[in-house]
Amino acid sequence: MRDVAIVAFAQSAHRRRTDELSEVDLLMPVLHEVLGATNLKANEIGFTCSGSADYLAGRAFSFTMALDGVGAHPPISESHVEMDGAWALYEAWVKIMTGEADTALVYAYGKSSPGQVRDVLTRQLDPYYVAPLWPDSVALAALQAQALIDAGATDEPALAEVAARNRFAAADNPYAQLTGDVPAGGHLVRPLRTGDCPPIGDGAAAVILAAGDTARALCERPAWIRGIDHRIEAHGLGVRDLTDSPSTRLAAQHAGAFERPVDTAELHAPFTSQEVVLRGVLGLGDDVAVNPSGGALAANPIMAAGLIRLGEAAARIHRGQSDRALAHATSGPCLQQNLVAVLEGESAHA
Amino acid sequence: MTDVLSAPLVVEFPFTRSLGPVQSAFLTGLRERTVLGVRTEDGTVLVPPVEYDPVTAGELRELVEVAPTGTVTTWAWNPSPRRGQPLDTPFAWVLVRLDGAGTALLHALDAPGPDAVHTGMRVRVRWAETRTGAITDIACFEPYDGEPGPAEPTPHTGEFTDPVTRIVAPARLDYVHTPGRAQSAYLKALEGHRTVGERCPACRKVYVPPRGACPTCGVATAEQVEVGPRGTVTTFCIVNIKAKNLDIEVPYVYAHIALDGADLALHGRIAGIPYDQVRMGLRVEPVWSGAAGGSPHPDHYRPTGEPDADYDTYKELV
Ligand SMILES: [Zn+2]
Q: Which residues does the UniProt record annotate as the domain ChsH2 rubredoxin-like zinc ribbon (chain B) (predicted)?
């Protein structure tokens, strides 16, 4: 098996709206930054993969516009996933593991500001039984939150603490959209208050993956992907136990997350209640730095927020702040799909 | 910011979907005020039913009828209903396990306020007056304090007269589209019957319409360049099928046109010349629609009368 690492990460400043920027305008500085960090030229990258969603822009094939930003002519080896960029990273990892590339550029972006994101996300639901009722993303998260409250796993004050801790951590994150004291606010959909919900915003992120000695040449302390896996659960919400996340647990197990403790965890939990579920299934103790970036509660550019969790975890390893980090990404309602990666830095004593 | 255009963008479509045997029976059943579930290999009754076992992926066909009464397994109070949702007054989203079912169905509960709702409360289906074979045939749930339905569902053939075999799910999403700086500048120039492109700072190519980036170099383009108005047909096709709602006689010619000074051809219709006399190298100029408030784009391009361009002058743009 090849060793594959995240060797560079960049993200935009996430903002409530970016009317003056097209998707490619939003993305290009991030691409230049991540390439600059490795001194690679776009045409030296072996494989490029992106994540985004047409429904955010309201236009078919919107990702093809963003391709201009990577210099896709003359032709490059390229692919796209219509979901969070974390899954694009998974595809790129497979491409490198199979020996078809030595380096990969993975990027993701989302502009939520043109539409009503609560309504837009209903279009990913079961089209026969659920989507015709237009249950918005906050409503579905609120059902999960109430299930947790009924089970005694949390209560409204505990959820408010989750929000406060994330946004306090985000004060050190210059890219975050919401930081510091954010009022708990009124109920958006009870039991969730505005403070329990992520900000709506626009943003982009990119990482570079590389194999073996290439990674060592490009980065002083590569964040080696020791394991990565993703799992999905039944789409019927009433079939699932919303207080549990067996898909996360299984992905974490396959990624080797339970073999040794991690010191950092970047969890993709756009709603406070989802962090409660994830901490539980991942068995994260108080000694683990959970979402030192502020997580998705501080900045939630849809389709990029999961990739950012991988990038933030890797960046802590690059900076020497972490030796073994867990990164998690989610997609779909109530943590339907989950991806877990375990990243490690080479020991300083090896 | 002020230089950026914005406009409403509505994405609206009637999504027609065919139903398999299980979904057809379930939705037809709702039309007939009958709630059906499907029994899995381990005996669990799934409501709403699916065609494949979520655990084993085995095919499921054993239909059963469950009660229209049930128990709330979790809920969320929605103080501000949104467009398309089942009720337009504040309501609770609920997952309801109907009596006889092993799983829960998502719907709305009509209740006076959040204090009137709790997990474990008993509810029953309120049927829609007009039912067509859709999940919305259940108008919502309502509180219910009568007798529970039987715990054991009864077998059902799933057969109805005039079964529903497909649904049409209308979707509408509203956006405010902003095309960004480069395309805004392009569209604004068109209002003055001018065409502007942008030059790449690295390879010096002029792109039109500009999208803010050079697809070869992957860098931002910013330097505006006015191109045209005349140009050269680089390639073309003859359209023989009349498009719906398009008031243009067929056959007509659609062409790639390299405007003078541009390094990328854009496309447009060619008129003012018989369709079978259009050729590569033909020199053309835009004809703007006279209609006030009409499209800012040229209506079509017509021959200028100049001699044809030499192939070498446009071969890179074909
Ligand atoms: Zn260029």
A: 192-219
DSSP for residue B152: S
Of A22, A133, A187, the CB nearest to B179: A22
| B163-219 per-position pLDDT tens digit | 999 999 999 999 999 988 999 999 999 989 999 999 999 999 999 999 999 999 999
Identify the sign of the CA torsion A77, A80, A81, A83. positive
Structure tokens at B209: 């319409």
How many other C-beta atoms lie within 10 A of the C-beta of residue B224? Answer: 15
pLDDT score, position A260: 96
Query: Which candidate in B52, B93, B137, B316 is best for mutational testing of the A interface (most A CBs within 10 A)?
Result: B93
Task: Report the gap between the CA of B313 and the closest CA in chain A (Å).
Answer: 22
Q: Which long-range contacts (CB under 8 A, 24 or more apart) does B244-252 make?
A: B251/B275
Residue B266 touches partner A, C-beta closer than 8 Å: no
List the Cα angle A41/A36/B206 in 5-degree steps: 55
The mean pLDDT value of chain B amounts to: 94
Measure B265 CA to ligand 1 centroid, in angstroms. Answer: 16
Q: Which helix (H) or strand (E) holds A306?
A: helix A305-318
Residues of B with Cβ-Cβ distance to A32 under 8 angstroms = 219
Q: How much is the pLDDT for A348?
A: 46
A264-266/A289-290 β-pairing: parallel
Would you say A69 and A181 are in contact if contact means Cβ atoms under 8 Å apart?
no
**CA-based nearest residue to B195, from B104, B111, B298:** B298
A334 interfaces chain B, CB cutoff of 8 Å: no
Test B217 with A71 for CB contact under 8 angstroms: yes
Shortest distance, CA B74 to any CA of chain A (angstroms): 6
Place of tokens 């010619």: B253
Asked whether the beta carbons of residue A191 and residue B82 sit closer than 8 angstroms, the reply is no
Task: For B124-163, write each residue's pLDDT tens digit.
Answer: 999 999 999 999 999 999 999 999 999 999 999 999 999 9
Query: Which residue, A185, A186, A167, is CA-closest to A177?
Result: A167
Quote the pTM value. 0.95
Both tokens assigned to B91: 């309501």
A187 touches chain B (CB under 8 A): yes
CB distance A71 to B217 below 8 Å: yes
Helix (H, G, I), strand (E, B) or coil at A169: helix
